[in-house]
């Protein structure tokens, strides 16, 4: 059955439609799935957003409730939370992703099942009984439990379509002997842009390889597949994915898809934003600032931090750097580093903050390029604003994203795994000065225009979102 078959929903279904959205408990996953929740609520669908207790507390502390969805007319997004099974003092980091996943499956699945039973019977308050689940595709148990209870489930994947397709290919690469990659092999030949866990795997039984291959294959069992991308950016990958999952909705970039809602998109920040950096940007010349942020998961050593810092200072460019409290590996922060930051701030050449309102920063006239970890949310936000990127990928899909930024879309530069000060300085100059920078800006502007058209009325993502809404409403059963 194709997605167009769902356009004619049953009369009155909208009033009784209730979707539960369950993201994997990480910043990047929360961000775009909360945006989807707000968009569905604006389309007259009741939404329950299920978070972990640990992250929901952080979300409330960082936002003070001001940036959460449900501020306009119509149904609001209700928030529910379950425990993730880990102690509060345990780091939820990229290095412990598999530990968090195992804890969710072992310790949270029963609470999730109990909540679904409650919502299925209409015991969740004023909202109608739950009629659909949209679960993060890397949590197969969330899809399976919903279907076992008779609740139709859809899978949402937060990476790029190209990354998802690369994950699909892992079993074939193992079978053909392309993986695992021998130590010392040329990583550019013959397969390009492999994710970090593929490059680091030394055995076909590598846990991370197994994890991404299994969860990606499982997504084909869901009623539909939702991706935060658009047809213009990834036509080939989307075509390949649809060969496996015909009902695939490319509805991104979600943060730019308002679909009739005039309010600004929700922000799901687990850190409190330091808005003083916007005032600092107001005082800087146009396109003079390098914005530096490595997202919510990436970490670096003290040596890497110092190489980045000295390269940025050596470039002679002003820069705004987001340095999360946990960015530097444990024990890596020193008084010398603090002194360097204070010295640059005193000269008004640099600003360092713990977290920034990223979409607002990227849209600021003073920002000339974005040094990024190439997470998919950050990549899309930079694309929409037409800001060229310097990519230092860290984990998972980021190597693929950075390769596409530099080699396919040609809207940025790929640092790969290196961060020597000379490389940092050279790439900043290339992205900010001269003919090369002019070419990057032209390409980034053209990409921004095409991506924005996709989310406007008549665009491919706008149309796909409308079909998704009708599909969801068609699943509502009469009360």
Automatic annotation (TrEMBL):
Q: What is its EC number?
A: 2.4.1.-
Q: Where is the Glycosyltransferase N-terminal domain?
A: 18-57
Q: Name one GO molecular function term.
A: quercetin 7-O-glucosyltransferase activity
* Domain of life of the source: Eukaryota
Keywords for the protein's UniProt record, in alphabetical order: Glycosyltransferase, Transferase
Q: What class of enzyme is it?
A: transferase
Which Pfam family, an example, fits this chain?
Glyco_transf_N
Q: Which PANTHER family match?
A: GLUCOSYL/GLUCURONOSYL TRANSFERASES, GLYCOSYLTRANSFERASE
Tell me its family: Belongs to the UDP-glycosyltransferase family.
Recorded protein name is: Glycosyltransferase
* UniProt source species: Ananas comosus
Q: What is the name of the gene encoding this protein?
A: LOC109719726
């Amino acid at each position: 059955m194709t997605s167009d078959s769902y356009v004619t929903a049953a009369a009155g279904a909208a009033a009784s439609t209730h979707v539960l959205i369950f993201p994997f408990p990480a910043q990047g996953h929360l961000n775009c799935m909360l945006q989807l929740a707000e968009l569905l609520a604006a389309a007259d669908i009741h939404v329950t957003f299920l978070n972990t207790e640990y992250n929901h507390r952080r979300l409330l502390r960082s936002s003070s409730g001001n940036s959460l969805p449900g501020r306009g007319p119509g149904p609001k997004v209700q928030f529910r939370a379950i425990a993730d099974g880990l102690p509060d003092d345990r780091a939820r980091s990229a290095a412990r992703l598999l530990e968090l996943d195992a804890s969710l499956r072992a310790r949270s699945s029963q609470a999730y099942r109990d909540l679904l039973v409650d919502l299925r019977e209409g015991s969740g308050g004023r909202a109608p009984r739950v009629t659909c689940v949209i679960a993060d595709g890397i949590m197969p148990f969330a899809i399976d439990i919903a279907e076992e209870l008779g609740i139709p489930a859809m899978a949402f994947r937060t990476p790029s379509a190209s990354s998802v397709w690369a994950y699909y290919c892992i079993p074939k690469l193992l079978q053909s002997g392309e993986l695992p990659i021998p130590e010392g092999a040329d990583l550019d030949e013959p397969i390009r842009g492999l994710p970090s866990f593929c490059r680091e795997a030394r055995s076909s039984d590598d846990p991370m390889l197994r994890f991404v291959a299994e969860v990606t294959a499982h997504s084909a069992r869901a009623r539909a597949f939702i991706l935060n991308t658009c047809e213009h950016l990834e036509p080939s990958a989307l075509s390949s994915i649809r060969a496996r999952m015909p009902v695939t909705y490319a509805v991104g970039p979600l943060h730019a898809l308002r679909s009739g809602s005039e309010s600004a998109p929700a922000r799901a920040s687990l850190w409190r934003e330091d808005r003083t950096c916007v005032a600092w940007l107001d005082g800087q010349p146009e396109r003079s600032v390098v914005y530096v942020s490595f997202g919510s998961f990436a970490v670096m050593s003290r040596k890497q931090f110092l190489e980045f810092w000295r390269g940025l200072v050596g470039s002679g460019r002003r820069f705004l750097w987001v340095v999360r409290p946990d960015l530097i590996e444990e024990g890596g922060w020193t008084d010398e580093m603090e002194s360097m930051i204070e010295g640059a701030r005193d000269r008004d050449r640099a600003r360092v903050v713990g977290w920034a309102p990223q979409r607002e920063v990227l849209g600021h006239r003073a920002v000339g390029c974005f040094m990024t970890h190439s997470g998919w949310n950050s990549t899309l936000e930079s694309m929409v604003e037409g800001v060229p990127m310097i990519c230092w990928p860290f984990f998972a899909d980021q190597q693929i994203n950075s390769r596409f930024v530099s080699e396919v879309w040609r809207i940025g530069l790929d640092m790969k795994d290196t961060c020597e000060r000379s490389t940092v300085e050279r790439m900043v100059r290339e992205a900010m000065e001269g003919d090369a920078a002019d070419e990057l800006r032209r390409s980034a502007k053209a990409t921004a225009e095409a991506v924005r058209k996709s989310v406007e009325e008549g665009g491919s993502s706008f149309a796909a979102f409308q079909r998704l809404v009708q599909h969801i409403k068609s699943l509502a059963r009469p009360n």
